[in-house]
Amino acid sequence: KNAEELVYQYTRAGFTKIHLDTSMKVADDPEGVLSTETIARRGVKLYQVCMRAYEDLLKENPEAVRPVFIIGSEVPIPGGAQEAEDTLSVTSPEAFEDTVNTYRRMFKEADAGDGWKDVIAVVVQPGVEFGDDQVFLYDSKAAEALTEQLKKYPEVVFEGHSTDYQSAESLRDMVTDGICILKVGPSLTYAMREAVFALSMMEKELVPAEEQAYLIETLEHVMTDEPGNWQKHYHGSLKELALARKYSFSDRARYYMGDKKVIAAIDKLFGNLRRYTIPMNMLHQYMPLQFDKVRTGSLSMDPKALVQDAILQFLYDYEYAAGYDTDAQIIRGVAEL
């Protein structure tokens, strides 16, 4: 009931892409993994709730966009793997086909046969993931059996999760192979964290100690005072934990960037670096990509602009992967934040 209310409200609010992931067990489910049939039957039930919500929305807004749906349950742990891994298992072609065929059957049994037309993608594990200090790059060959199977179902594409930190070429290979919806998140906040840390290092060189923002130290204090958002995700010695809090690709620090003390430190950092101009040679040391743009006049030296551009560096890889062409204005894939 809670899940039905949740998807109803999301659809009613105008959300147009809904992932029907019903693989998590409820309180009275038996031991063991849920069957594909159970998952699909529950997914179709949620689909019907969403469409009721859409019909209600149309009464208020006749031009409301019809929602589309994602199925599949090969969803990694949010924020990346918690333990170091050696290899990743790619979703088998048989598991993918079983998901598709079972959902089709469940739509028909629920007298919602046309519902399959609203499904645009299936979530799979194509062999990409990241952890504290490791990234598994996409291997087209390793996923070949899976991506070849997709050709039998031209009405859908794959959705890939945890695509953060993939190279531009790896992302483009994923889109070329049919993994056209690329989920991204922690890498963007990681880019922000990395950029404000770089600014903090420059501040230490330029600003008198008594005037400094001490952002890095403030963030560390807030995270250790309130460890709830990282304690279960980071493991190791005290030194390893300290390094993970700062530099982990999982970027649990993102949950603390909205803290009042951290926001105040960032604001002070920006203010300081507007008063104490960053020398070009120092910018080259800490933010070489932004240096090139500042030098040519395409980017302001303003600290906030430098951080924003650092975040864009990751998005450019997704733009490249999606086949975006400045002249032709073509997009072949979608990067989803």
Can you describe what's shown?
The protein has two domains: 2-183, Aldolase class I (TIM Barrel, Alpha-Beta Barrel); 188-222 and 254-312, putative tagatose 6-phosphate kinase domain like (GI Alpha 1, domain 2-like, Orthogonal Bundle), CATH 1.10.400. Helix content is 48%, strand content 9%. The protein contains twelve helices and eight strands. Strand 2, helix 3 (93-109) and strand 3 (119-124) form a beta-alpha-beta unit. Helix 1 packs parallel to helix 2 (36-60), helix 6 runs antiparallel to helix 12 (303-321) and helix 10 (280-286) runs antiparallel to helix 11 (288-296). It starts with a helix and ends with a strand. The model is unreliable at 326-331 (pLDDT under 50).
The number of helical runs is: 12
Mean pLDDT: 93
Largest sheet: 6 strands, parallel
Quote the beta fraction: 5-15%
Oligomeric state of the chains in view: single chain
Superfamily at the CATH H level of the largest domain? Aldolase class I
| CATH-defined architecture of the largest domain | Alpha-Beta Barrel
Number of strands: 8
CATH topology of the largest domain: TIM Barrel
Write down the CATH class of the largest domain.
Alpha Beta
Along the chain, the helix and strand elements come as HEHEHEEEHEHEHHHHHHHE
User: How many structural domains are formed by the residues?
Assistant: 2
End-to-end separation in angstroms reads 28 Å
